[in-house]
Amino acid sequence: MPSAGINTFIIHDLTGPCAHRASARGTHMMKMKLPRRTLLHLAASAAALQSMARIARAQNLPTTQTPFMDRYAMVDGLRLHYLDWGTPTKPAMILVHGIARHAHTFDHIVPEFTRDYRVIALDMRGHGDSAWSSEGAYLVEDHVKDLEAIIHELGLARVTLWGNSTGGRVVQVYAGLHPEIVERLIVEDVGPERPQSIAEGFANRVRREAVGWASEDDLVTQLKTQNPRTPEPILRTYARFGTTRRSDGRLIWKFDPNLVKGFVETELWQYVSKITSPTIFVIGGASPIVPAEIQKRLSNTLPNCEVVVMPGLGHYPNEEDTTGFLTLVNRFLKRG
Length: 336
What we know:
two-stranded antiparallel sheet, Rossmann fold, 39% helix, alpha/beta, 13 strands
């Protein structure tokens, strides 16, 4: 696989006293007429940190705001974006988001892990600030190749992987292909199979939401109706970093509508059956994505696997009950 060039874009350090200095620098930088994209990244970073602090206070989570870096990698001609927290000397934990989402959907929970890990959250191809595939190459296997390239270029010998939804399928496949690299595997509410009904549901959503929204508040209102158990700050982060303005002023999702070409009926047991690392599947009890028979097959197939159901929760347990999710994951990671 071609080597992926890794380039640091901007270091964001807007915590504590640095926030005041950054604000002053921001005024000076505007006078220097820095590129609009740079200024937007600075503003977005401040918003992300403020959102993390609000969520942490609401759920009694750690409030330490570790600075992150926006980085980019070139993989097979695509410029892929990822967020990088922590230092290279710590063990690596890589987070891979779900379909139509982005790296910042982990903002609320990352501070829990940066004490012990270098945390890296990807924008998969076609999502967030990563480039779109002109061929519509969005199969799970395409995303896995991107993950392989980034891990290789960063020189990571061992990694802990955590993926939710489609990202959970990606990390399952990677762990099956590279058992020697994966230290531990966290999979959130997804198994090796995607039925046609789920694929059709996403395609219908893309068509339905193509009209966009008049404002971020309108979108957040819709998201609150669809996700009543998720705190509003988490939904607002999802909306803020996941959207852009169309030429007519309407707010639309950043993701490539052609994601539907890769979001198809899928069966990945050939890869998943080769996973050897300690693995935890955290399932939302109110979600239909991983039915009981699949949960049982996972337990019977994988030698070092734990399947835990969080009653009453949906497709993103880490968002709906962050404290409960962290209790499970910290135990699995053997953290105090």
